[in-house]
Structures are given as structure tokens and as C-alpha cells.
Amino acid sequence: MQIYLRPGLKYLGFFHFLKLLLRIKYGRGGIAYVNFILRRLNFHDYLFDNRNKVRFKVKYNDLISMSILKSGCYEKDSLQLVLKALQYKPGLFIDIGANFGLYTIYASKIPGVKTIAIDGLSESFSLLLNNIEANQLRDKVTACNLILSSRQHFAFFGHHDQGNLGSSRIKNTLRADVPNQYIVDTTTLDGLLEFIQPDYPVISLIKMDIEGQEYEVLKNSTLLEKSRPSYLLVEMLDDNENFDKIIDFFKEYQYIPYNIYGTRYETGAPIPESNLLFIDSKNLDSLLRVYDIPK
């Protein structure tokens, strides 16, 4: 699937107006300047992929949206790998940290795929619901406005970076440097799946992008033991204090980490796009074929 997202006419019109007015150029500096102004206006509009008949309503001054404006996609190779894996092994896709739905919408277009999309931030979740409707995927996506953790409890939650909706995360204490922080009620991944999974097919792939909370969600879960998903794409940030614990957790359940280009991960190796694909070793030879499938 070839992916290239373009800005909507409202954004382009605004950009060309400023170009005439201020003589700015389309490029990193120009986009940053326009988005600084749009931030003040709280500007929302659509991004379009006409080839795949996909569109997304986004907040244009957000980090992911700015990345898409510069390159036509965000985490393009990770997204392509997820789509190839779901084409090869259709089933249930669980998108934990769905944001406005980039992975969710493209994945749900694949025949035989249904999606559970999870995001806890109200602004991201509102965009996610809009994009599910805009792409006519209501019958294929179950959207969950939830905060996942290792147990049911109360926690502080809020933005880490105002310019990045995807930076929202659980905090252990109330912090003055985190804007719009509030208290949330958390639940477990097992509890959520127990509630809704009977209506869904076997889990094919789980994507986790929850700002360092991946281990907290997984550590008390029986998911890998009971459901045995084929693939898990997990964000692995260098500053994640639980980095080694995540690797050891998957090793215990006999999952093997590969980077998004198909090289087995070794300690200290670079991680392109900060994502590792953990593959079920019990069916490794078959599942590794995902790297040979053309885009």
C-alpha cells in the first residue's frame, strides 16, 4: 500500500495567503511558522490520501501532523510493516495509543481485519471518533476512551508536551510542569478484552505506543499466554526506564524482537523509528515472511 497524505484546501489556502503576505517558503521553516500561527488559532483540518481513499481530521500544529506535512506520512516504515503483517495474518488489530487513528484507519481498510482502538486523551479520542466516521469504518472499529495500566486504580494523567498529543501519559504525582493534568481511572488490558473479545477474531497484531507505559500495561497481563498474538509492535524509547524489562518480558513468553527492517534486535543496536516488532517464536519461520511481502 503506497501512502502519501496531503494537506486540505483550507490549510493550503491559508499557507498561500501567508506566502503572499510574508514571502515565506514551503519547507521546514515555513511549515513551522505557519503552524505557530495555526497553534494560536487552534486550527483543525483534514489530511487526504486520495489513492487509498483515506482522510484524517487532525490538529495541524501537532507534532505528528507536522511530520506528515513535511514527508507525507509518520512512521512510514512501521506503518507499512503493520499493514503487511495484517494482510498476511488478518484478524484482530489492537491499537494501544491510537491518537487520531493513523494506524487504525489504514489497518481497518484491510479485508478480514477488525480493530480495537484505545486512547485516553479526550482531544485525541474526539479526532479518532471523527476519523472513524469520516472513513465509514464504524462497523470495523471499536473505539475505547481508556487509560490502561497493570491494575484498576486512580492516576494522574496529562500532556508531557503541549505540541504533541501523543506525549500524554500517566504520572505518579501531580506536577506543576504538566499542563491540563487531571485524575483518571485506569483499567487493565485483560479486563477490557474479557469484556469485548468474544465478538472478535483471533488477535493478529498489537501496536503499543503509550510513552513508556508499555511494561506497566503488560507486566500483570496473561495476554501472551492465553491469546498468543502473532506480532506486537512496541515503541522502545532510549530513555524508557523499563526498556530491559520489556525485552525480558517478551523473552519469557518466547517472543523475539526484530527491527522494522527485519534484523533481529541485539542489545545496544539502533532502533529505527523507535519501534521493535516482537514475533511469536513458536511460528517464527512463517511469521518472518512479513518482511518479504512487497509494499
What is this entry, summarized?
The chain has 295 residues and is an alpha/beta fold. The chain has helices spanning 9-22, 28-41, 63-71, 76-88, 102-108, 122-134, 189-196, 214-218, 223-226, 243-252, 284-287; strands at 6-7, 44-49, 54-59, 92-96, 114-118, 141-144, 147-149, 154-158, 169-171, 182-188, 203-208, 231-235, 255-259, 275-280.
Provide a descriptive summary of the structure in words:
By secondary structure, this protein is α/β, with parallel strands linked by helices. It has two domains: 1-74, no CATH class; 75-292, Rossmann fold (3-Layer(aba) Sandwich). Helix content is 34%, strand content 23%. It has eleven helices and 14 strands. The protein has helices spanning 9-22, 28-41, 63-71, 76-88, 102-108, 122-134, 189-196, 214-218, 223-226, 243-252, 284-287; strands at residues 6-7, 44-49, 54-59, 92-96, 114-118, 141-144, 147-149, 154-158, 169-171, 182-188, 203-208, 231-235, 255-259, 275-280. The strands form three sheets. The protein has a seven-stranded mixed sheet, sandwiched between helices. Strands 7-10-8-9 form a four-stranded mixed sheet. The chain has a three-stranded antiparallel sheet with strand order 1-2-3. The longest helix has 14 residues, at 9-22. It is globular, with a radius of gyration of 19 Å. The termini are close together. The mean pLDDT is 87.
